[in-house]
Amino acid sequence: ETGVTQTPRHLVMGMTNKKSLKCEQHLGHNAMYWYKQSAKKPLELMFVYSLEERVENNSVPSRFSPECPNSSHLFLHLHTLQPEDSALYLCASSQGFRQLDYGYTFGSGTRLTVV
Amino acid sequence: QQQVKQSPQSLIVQKGGISIINCAYENTAFDYFPWYQQFPGKGPALLIAIRPDVSEKKEGRFTISFNKSAKQFSLHIMDSQPGDSATYFCAASSRTGNQFYFGTGTSLTVIP
């Protein structure tokens, strides 16, 4: 399989649940990202992981917790979410951190609905 | 503060017409400007990108026009087709930055 793969594609969870989103890239890239996509808003960067550095958006609530066990896998752990967290969560990768010459490769996203 | 401003929010074009989407930025450190295309149920995909050392870049029916002094860039889709119906995002970054800054997206509908 090639590119960036995200699972699950759709997720419905209650506010007291704990779930995880998974992202895997098969491109040999060294940086991975989590973005939140909400209607009529710019894509919001949540986390960046690379071999060199981890970068967090300080406005992201602690109910979102990233994990990057290696350069090919990225997880987003979710707990006690709120309905306003419902959105499309996109994973992306790039060749390197601070090497954006070739842009991002995005996965297809996980559509999250919090009920 | 929104780093990249995109307009219009939505656009309807007749088949064969020209679709034009505009973006503006403030940060003069930005030196890489990609456009992404997103179909329903898919993630954004890189469509075309430009650096500020050129004023125009063309790939097939897609052209980016770049005005460095005005800090504006636009996407032109010539001979628009129904298959071009998608959401288009502009973005900007500095080459050594740690992220892209995205516009809010333009929903393009090309009617037959």
Rg measurement of chain A, Å: 13 Å
Number of strands of chain B: 11
| Tally of helical segments of chain B | 0
What is the residue-averaged pLDDT of chain A? 90
What distance lies between the first and last C-alpha atoms of chain A, to the nearest angstrom?
33 Å
Helical coverage of chain B, percent range: under 10%
Structural class of chain A: mainly beta
Gross morphology of chain B is globular
**Secondary structural class of chain B:** mainly beta
User: What summary fits the major beta sheet of chain A?
Assistant: 7 strands, mixed
- Whole-number average pLDDT of chain B? 94
N-to-C order of helices and strands of chain A: EEEEEEEEEEE
**DSSP strand (E) fraction of chain A?**
over 45%
Radius of gyration of chain B over alpha carbons? 13 Å
Unreliable parts of chain A: none
Number of helices of chain A: 0
Largest interface: A-B, 26 and 26 residues
How are the SSEs placed, and which strands pair?
The complex is a heterodimer of chains A (115) and B (112).
Chain A: E1 4-7, E2 10-13, E3 18-25, E4 31-37, E5 44-50, E6 54-56, E7 64-70, E8 73-79, E9 87-94, E10 105-106, E11 110-114
Parallel strand pairs in A: 2-11
Antiparallel strand pairs in A: 1-3, 3-8, 4-5, 4-9, 5-6, 7-8, 9-10, 9-11
Chain B: E1 4-7, E2 10-14, E3 19-25, E4 33-38, E5 45-50, E6 56-59, E7 62-67, E8 72-77, E9 86-92, E10 101-102, E11 106-111
Parallel strand pairs in B: 2-11
Antiparallel strand pairs in B: 1-3, 3-8, 4-5, 4-9, 6-7, 7-8, 9-10, 9-11
